[in-house]
Automatic annotation (TrEMBL):
Matching InterPro entries: Spore_coat_CotH_CotH2/3/7 (IPR014867)
Protein name: CotH kinase family protein
Keywords: Kinase, Transferase
Keyword Kinase: yes
Lineage, top ranks: Bacteria, Bacillati, Bacillota, Bacilli, Bacillales
Molecular-function annotations in GO: kinase activity
Species assigned in the record: Tumebacillus amylolyticus
Length: 363
């Protein structure tokens, strides 16, 4: 399983002039026509750069939409992440596997080798798009999906890092699968979070949020230590049958002891409660606080342990290492990669101790 020869090879072709234009101005959003070949099958596609901060790196990440055939692996689009700032390349994948283990929804992710106009572009992480097909593959009820595209998706009436009111309740969100009625449901959620009296809040919020799934997600963000994960880097799914919202994690390279720039982050940097307006209101309700504490204890005892995670980490590292030796952007940094197992393991042990010590904060 750790043999990189098993990794799929994707051959991506873009007109050289279009590729130069895309790379010359990484801030532009234009998509270009191209072709993707996987095995014997070729696809006409539209390709664009993806991400915000990561566009500045020399190794770019891409979004791919399929034109003809119009689907690939039961999806109409995919994301190819360079994971450039993560010395291990595995933090995103490790995070999503961890979320799935604790019962939270998360995108599927796997590694591929990318050829760009015939030359090696290196190792990439293919991320599944969170959309209507994502729901269908999991036999989930159809429903609205919103992307939290910036840190104003903080469940507050105020902008992040500011005392200034938002111009619109839904600032920070982008509709992926949405109607005007869905936007109204999102506005109702944000209104209830921010205006409902405390005595009425438990019943009101229980009608709008899947509390169990929210706490699975919150435990995942807190354990993996995603600084931005509470106020962006998530999708918000409204189950069409129950009418309840739940978050789905997204972009988790800045985790497991490193931030989005790849810098080391102290294991006590993020509190056990996380931070955003919805979490603060939920944890102010004694019965919800007890539920979160119980869930966090379960996760710490069963899944967020060095013994449980070590085989997964070792397998992922063994999978990517040979491919990194052929990666034109990463092969010179292989010695740093080889130290990442200890970095991640040290983080798990330190973070676990911190969270166990701070379970009392939830009393």
């Amino acid at each position: 399983m750790g043999d990189h020869s098993e990794l799929p090879v994707y051959s991506l072709f873009v007109h050289p002039n279009d590729l130069r234009g895309m790379l010359r101005d990484p801030e532009q959003e234009e998509a270009f026509q191209g072709r993707l070949k996987v095995g014997r099958q070729a696809y006409r596609i539209m390709i664009a750069l993806r991400g915000a901060y990561i566009r500045r790196y020399p190794k770019k990440s891409f979004s791919v939409q399929f034109l003809s055939p119009n689907s690939f692996q039961a999806a109409r689009e995919l994301h190819l992440n360079a994971e450039y700032a993560d010395p291990s390349m595995i933090r995103n994948k490790l995070s999503f596997d961890f979320f799935q283990r604790i019962g939270a929804l998360a995108p599927h992710a796997h590694f591929v080798k990318l050829l760009l106009n015939g030359g090696s572009a290196g190792l990439y992480l293919q991320l599944e798009s969170v959309d209507d097909l994502y729901l269908k593959k999991r036999n989930l009820p159809p429903g609205a999906i919103f992307y939290a595209i910036n840190d104003d998706a903080n469940f507050s009436l105020l902008r992040s890092n500011s005392n200034r009111l938002k111009d619109e309740l839904e600032e920070g969100y982008e509709g992926k699968v949405s109607t005007e009625a869905d936007w109204e449901s999102l506005r109702e959620l944000l209104y209830v979070i921010n205006t409902t009296p405390q005595a009425d809040f438990p019943n009101a919020i229980d009608q709008l949020v899947d509390i169990e799934q929210y706490f699975n997600w919150l435990a995942g963000v807190v354990c993996t230590h995603n600084f931005d994960g509470f106020i962006q880097n998530y999708a918000l799914y409204r189950n069409g049958d129950t009418g309840r919202f739940q978050p789905i994690p997204w972009d988790y390279d800045g985790t497991w002891g490193r931030n989005l720039r790849g810098e080391r982050l102290r294991a006590d940097y993020i509190p056990i409660t996380g931070y955003n307006s919805l979490t603060a209101r939920l944890l102010a309700v004694p019965k919800f606080r007890v539920r979160y504490k119980r869930r966090m204890e379960e996760v710490l005892e069963t899944e967020f342990t060095a013994d449980r995670l070590t085989p997964l980490i070792e397998n992922l590292l063994q999978t990517v290492r040979p491919a990194l030796l052929d990666d034109p952007h990463r092969k010179e940094f292989i010695s740093r990669f080889d130290g990442e197992f200890e970095v991640i393991l040290k983080f798990i042990n330190e973070r676990s101790r911190y969270l166990f010590d701070h379970l009392v904060d939830l009393n």
